[in-house]
């Protein structure tokens, strides 16, 4: 039984992969960073990417919304489909794609704007609000989803950069969800946070999967075990093992996975 069936009350489709990646290879100039990776990202699921430093987790994550397009030396081959549509099709506008496949980075990076404007920015450029009150509703909903509303509702016009690190990261999550993405990519979203802020963001990730597919890169195996349902273990650019998180951590099939989770490599 898939773990997703535990989520009561929401329309959940775990059968059809949200993203399907096949034979993906990534090169930075002559460096072959990702080798023949096949992976399915399920709907309404948190998928964790784990593995030693330099194994390609972030590179692969950034392929999922074409963030690697911004790196001149980077070349991606193979097939990546979002709801069956080729992410790398020439007709796909990467800006539109990134509204559907949002991203939260390691270091909180609010814009030098107010809390309100940080969240309103995406909906404005994508024309999601018909009126001022519409925009206000969108911002409130996103801040609630980012578990930040109660802390900032009385100072929406204060600068986002004036918030604590943990609040800034939740603001960035609110900013990412404001455009109603379908997938949320998170690249070590808690690495700059203290344990309390980390726990808040982890709780939020669990909430978010009711509406989105979440893919998280993490160096913390405890975090992967706590927040994810599926785990992908990368090593030297290869996807060594992919499966249910419980199985990967208790009964890995590949000796390299076992070495990593028991602390012998990485
Ligand atoms: N912009 C870049 N230009 C050239 N090579 C790069 C670039 N980004 C990453 N690489 C190389 O690609 C490989 C994979 O790096 P990547 O950052 O994806 O690994 P990672 O598993 O996310 O590492 P970490 O856990 O340390 O963040 C490494 O060999 C790295 O040096």
Automatic annotation (TrEMBL):
It comes from Sedimentitalea xiamensis. Pfam families: ABC_tran (PF00005). It comes from the Bacteria. The keyword Zinc does not apply. Residues 19-261 form the ABC transporter domain. One of its GO terms (molecular function) is ATP binding. This is Phosphate ABC transporter ATP-binding protein PstB. Keywords: ATP-binding, Nucleotide-binding, Phosphate transport, Transport.
